[in-house]
Every structure is written in C-alpha cells, then in structure tokens.
C-alpha cells in the first residue's frame, strides 16, 4: 500500500489536507475520531500528515457503540488503520447505548461524545477532530427544517465547538472517498448508513438527490451556506441575551419592563438561558412563549408551572424558582 504520509497529491488530497491544516493547533496533542469510514479515514490520514509537518502529536479515538454484530472487529480494524497512519496514541473505547426515548442515533451520539470527553481526559489532548462533511451539514439543516426547529438546529454544526473540531465542513463526501482512493486506503462502509429506517439516511439517499434533480445542483452547498449565515446571526443574538443576563438577572429575578423592551428573539433567549443556568431546565419554544406571555400579554394571570420550574410575575419582576 502506498505510504499514507506521501499519497499522490491530487485535488482531493490537497483540499482535505488544507482544511485540516487550518484547524490544527500549533502545539500539543489532538485526536481524530475514527470510525473507519471514508470521511474519518481521510481525516485521519490528512491529520497524520499535517501534524507531522507542524511538529505536533496526533492520535485517534475509536468508539465501539456495540450496536452491530462484529462491532469490536470493526473498531479493531480502525485502530490498526490509525496505527499504520502513524497516529499515537490510539484508544478504543467501548460504550453501551441505552434506549432513552430520544432514538438510537441521538442516544449513540450522547455516548460517543461522552467517550470523547474520556479520551481527552486520559490523554491530555486539546481537541478531537471529527469528519463531518458539507453533506452532513446539509442533511442536518434539512432535518431541522422538516422538524420545524429554530436557529439552534438550523445553524448546523460549527467548525469549532469547545474541544470538538470539524475541519471538513467545506468538503464534499465524494472528496473523502476520492482521497481514500488516491491514498490507497480502504474505508469501511457502515451498513447503517444505508438503512432507510433512519431519517438521516432517507434524507441522504432520497430527499437531497431528489432536490438536486428537481431544483438543480448546488442544494447541499446552499443549505450549508444557510447554516453559516444563521450561525452568525444566532451567535450575535446569543451574546446580546447573555450580556443582559449577566447584568440584570439576580437571584432568579429579572425586570419585566426590561424584557418587554427587547425584541422577541432576545427576550426569549434571556428566558431560556436564564432558566438553563439557574434550574438546569431546557425550555421548549412553547414553554418559552408561555413564560414570555407573562411579560408581553400580562392581564393578571397567576403563576406558571412548567416541568422543573415555577414562574410568577410580581411587583414588576419575573421570579423563577425550582420545583
């Protein structure tokens, strides 16, 4: 097999290496979240190459979700691939995905990110690189639109979220497959990626191709650009709301006239963020609007009881308490 550190420099190899180089830290250790699929394998190979050039360390973390027969063998092959690429350390972490009512994909995601936290703590790495592509971003936005989600979902995935780094959000999935071909790498094909029981698979295999056929090429890129624009707007509104909270929220209280003077977008964020920080409760949009009505549609109504919290308007203040 051609050396993964010196594959033929094709456009796919150059583009993915460049994308990785832009997000790597100047020093220390990073880990690649490696499943063995084309996206993460191309990411691992590019990271190994670029880390070597920068003089930093790069390892890998493989999460065995134990959801399929033979998953331990798949994880072992991914670990072998990581070692051949020169990544070190290589961690294989086994998790148990519990059915918690959120669906298997969401439950697996929770355990996967918990495993990443464990890997960071064990190794002292500064971050974990994940192989989410532009296609994944487009699927996320489209699913959010279909579910009527707000900007939190439609903003998609960020390139940098704490220690999680996603350098391939501007790279198409086809490019990662081409990288593997050009570099002589053999990616694993996850059968769950073709299982139509999963909504994301139906979006990937049916909905997006249909949109591209009916509306013309470029739909995936347009959805990804939409996410980027919404993320910029959402970040600005979030910062306004958090600043207001820091300056005006005290002991679970905030003035109603202050909230009434804000735009709906800021007012509702202040309510959500305040409740989250104080009570550890995440309000739905319907619940947030019910609280906001104590400000914008006040006609003497009594206390509002929601899961985990109680809200009452009294003496020109909204007062929040934990149930």
TrEMBL record:
One of its GO terms (molecular function) is tRNA(Ile)-lysidine synthase activity. Residues 258-318 form the tRNA(Ile)-lysidine synthase substrate-binding domain. GO terms for cellular component: cytoplasm. Residues 30-205 form the tRNA(Ile)-lysidine/2-thiocytidine synthase N-terminal domain. InterPro entries: Rossmann-like_a/b/a_fold (IPR014729), TilS/TtcA_N (IPR011063), tRNA_Ile_lys_synt (IPR012094), tRNA_Ile_lys_synt_N (IPR012795), tRNA_Ile_lys_synt_subst-bd (IPR015262). Its main location: cytoplasm. It holds the Pfam family TilS. Its EC number is 6.3.4.19. It is found in: Cytoplasm. ATP binds at residues 35-40. GO terms for biological process: tRNA modification. Keywords: ATP-binding, Cytoplasm, Ligase, Nucleotide-binding, tRNA processing. CDD domains: TilS_N. Transmembrane segments: none annotated. The N-terminal region contains the highly conserved SGGXDS motif, predicted to be a P-loop motif involved in ATP binding. Ligates lysine onto the cytidine present at position 34 of the AUA codon-specific tRNA(Ile) that contains the anticodon CAU, in an ATP-dependent manner. Cytidine is converted to lysidine, thus changing the amino acid specificity of the tRNA from methionine to isoleucine. NCBIfam families: lysidine_TilS_N (TIGR02432). Belongs to the tRNA(Ile)-lysidine synthase family. This is tRNA(Ile)-lysidine synthase. It comes from Cryobacterium flavum.
């Amino acid at each position: 097999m051609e050396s993964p550190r010196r594959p033929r420099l094709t456009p796919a190899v150059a583009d993915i290496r460049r994308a990785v180089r832009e997000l790597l830290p100047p020093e220390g250790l990073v880990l690649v979240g490696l499943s063995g699929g084309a996206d993460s394998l191309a990411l691992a190979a590019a990271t190994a190459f670029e880390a070597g050039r920068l003089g930093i360390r790069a390892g890998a973390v493989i999460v065995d979700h134990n959801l399929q027969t033979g998953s331990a063998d798949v994880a072992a092959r991914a670990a072998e691939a990581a070692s051949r690429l020169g990544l070190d350390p290589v961690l294989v972490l086994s998790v148990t995905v519990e059915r918690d009512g959120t669906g298997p994909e969401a439950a697996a995601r929770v355990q996967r990110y918990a495993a990443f936290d464990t890997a960071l703590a064990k190794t002292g790495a500064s971050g974990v690189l994940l192989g989410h592509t532009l296609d994944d971003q487009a699927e996320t936005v489209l699913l959010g639109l279909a579910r009527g989600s707000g900007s939190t979902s439609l903003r998609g995935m960020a390139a940098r979220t704490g220690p999680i780094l996603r350098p391939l959000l501007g790279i198409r999935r086809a490019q990662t497959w081409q990288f593997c071909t050009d570099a002589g790498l053999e990616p694993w094909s996850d059968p769950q990626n073709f299982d139509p029981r999963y909504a994301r698979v139906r979006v990937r295999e049916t909905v997006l191709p249909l949109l591209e056929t009916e509306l013309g090429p470029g739909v995936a890129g347009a959805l990804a650009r939409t996410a980027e624009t919404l993320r910029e707007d959402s970040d600005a509104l979030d910062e306004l709301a958090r600043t207001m909270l820091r300056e005006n929220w005290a002991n679970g209280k905030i003035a109603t006239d202050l909230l009434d003077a804000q735009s709906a977008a800021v007012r509702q964020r202040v309510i959500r963020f305040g409740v989250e920080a104080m009570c550890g409760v995440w309000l739905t949009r319907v619940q947030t609007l019910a609280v906001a009505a104590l400000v914008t549609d006040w006609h003497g109504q009594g206390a509002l009881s929601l899961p985990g919290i109680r809200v009452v308007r009294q003496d020109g203040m909204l007062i929040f308490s934990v149930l």
